[in-house]
Design brief:
Blueprint: H1 9-46, H2 53-56, H3 58-65, H4 68-91
């Protein structure tokens, strides 16, 4: 109708959409960071005294750690960590 103001439902929906987007981005960043830490730890392990990375080189070490099994472990660990920390955040 002409001359009537909207009731604010659109604003609430927009505000909710912004909250959901922030939560999704926070989850992506946190999960990505855990995956980064996992792979950096594996890469450092390739260059210790017992690892072959010192003799075989950096490219070999990268190829050695980038496997489907390592990716599955990294994703599962990151998701479990995210769920646990979200639970602890909401609990306090």
């Amino acid at each position: 109708m002409i001359g009537t103001r909207p009731r604010g439902g659109h604003f609430r929906q927009f505000a909710r959409l912004i909250q959901v987007r922030k939560a999704i981005w926070r989850a992506i960043v946190e999960i990505g960071f855990v995956i980064f830490l996992f792979y950096s730890n594996l890469l450092m392990g390739e260059f210790t005294r017992s690892g072959k990375g010192q003799t075989m080189g950096f490219a070999w070490a990268i190829a050695d750690i980038l496997t489907n099994a390592n990716l599955a472990i990294a994703i599962m660990a990151a998701l479990i960590g995210y769920v646990v920390f979200e639970f602890l955040r909401k609990k306090s």
